[in-house]
Design a protein that fits this description.
This protein is of the alpha/beta class. It has 10 helices and 13 strands. The protein has 3 domains: 4-96 and 135-245, Ribonuclease Z/Hydroxyacylglutathione hydrolase-like (Metallo-beta-lactamase, Chain A, 4-Layer Sandwich), CATH 3.60.15.10; 97-131; 252-318, Arc Repressor Mutant, subunit A, CATH 1.10.10. Helix 5 packs antiparallel against helix 6. Bound molecules: zinc ion (ZN) (2 copies).
Length: 322
């Protein structure tokens, strides 16, 4: 086995702590860099210290995806150790800091939220929040990693592009030792969530749940003995965890179908989340919007649901709903 050590770092998210991993390869590698907060920073330093290491021993950081609980402390690490190389998916840097992409992203989400049925005020509020990034100022990606690439400094490890949770998600697999580092792609017992990212300007948005189901089938074929996730426990039965995710997705799809039946077979996205998550969705509207948009993508792909735009808002119906 390649030596891999797990560092538990505090977040203020309902999902609990986030895990970074130290891989003792040819180059000492940190996978992901926690959420930017003082407690997490102390935990990172203490965790390294317990391994007999300090920040200056880290030679490279591989980022699984752009979310702030995985990239938050990259800047702080770079301040202490400017020689660290950063590796990530080819779109991570664009998503995090390309000004023209971020401006377009806010525009894209404002329209998407309006089409979902949100009020103009809420659409603007959440579109701005989605576009606002403040945790990757100093850092730049030194080299991009694509599907099938070897990981520099980690002989035997290969990159698998695992889109769905985000549009820049990569996982790392070592065929020799059957170890799998999967970020937020597969999290045991917890629904990791599907998030939308704006496409590049002028392109169609991705259908993340369809990408996700596809990538789960690729991961299912890996003979992984041990899987290290960004959250939750270390997984010794990867296929069991994958089945858990697929069950969750099918259950959610059935709930959406039942909700459409209940709402006389015609509802906006907002009406669906209001019915499904009454009293819960207001605080984290976009999480639920992404959840349901992606399920509706899947149901449209399966020819179970169709969408029609009325006055700029999508109205969803079951094809055989009468
Ligand atoms: Zn994530
Ligand atoms: Zn995460």
């Amino acid at each position: 086995m390649q030596r891999v050590e797990r560092l538990e770092l505090t977040t203020n998210f309902p999902i609990g702590p986030v895990y970074s991993y130290v891989v003792f390869g040819e180059k000492l590698t940190l996978i992901d860099a926690g959420l930017k907060n003082k407690q997490g920073w102390d935990e990172l330093n203490k965790g390294l210290h317990l391994l007999g290491l300090g920040l200056t021993d880290i030679e490279q950081i591989v980022i699984t995806h752009h979310h702030n609980d995985h990239t938050g402390m990259v800047d702080w690490i770079l301040e202490k150790n400017p020689s660290v190389s950063i590796y990530a998916h080819k779109d991570t840097e664009m998503i995090l800091k390309d000004e023209s992409y971020l401006a377009w992203s806010s525009e894209f989400f404002e329209r998407l939220f309006l089409e979902f049925g949100l009020t103009k005020e809420l659409a603007i509020k959440w579109a701005y929040r989605k576009g606002h990034r403040d945790y990757f100022q100093l850092a730049t990606v030194d080299e991009v990693l694509q599907d099938g690439d070897s990981v520099p400094g980690l002989p035997g490890w290969k990159v698998i592009e695992t889109l769905g949770h985000s549009q820049d998600h990569i996982s790392l697999y070592c065929g020799d030792t059957q170890q799998f580092i999967c970020g937020d792609n597969i999290i045991k017992g917890v629904h990791g969530g599907i998030f939308l990212d704006a496409p590049k300007q002028g392109e169609e948005r991705a259908k993340p749940l369809l990408q996700y189901l596809n990538n789960l089938e690729i991961c299912r074929k890996l003979p992984a003995k041990v899987t290290y996730s960004g959250h939750g426990p270390i997984i010794d039965n990867l296929n069991g965890a994958i089945d858990g995710h697929i069950n969750n997705i099918e259950n959610r799809a059935n709930r959406v179908i039942n909700t459409l039946k209940k709402l006389d077979n015609s509802a906006t996205g907002l009406e669906i989340i209001q019915d499904m998550y009454r009293g819960r969705y207001e605080k984290a509207v976009i999480t639920f919007v992404f959840e349901i948009v992606s399920v509706l993508d899947m149901l449209q792909e399966r020819n179970i649901v169709f969408a029609e735009k009325l006055n700029g808002v999508y109205q969803y119906r079951l094809i055989n709903g009468d």
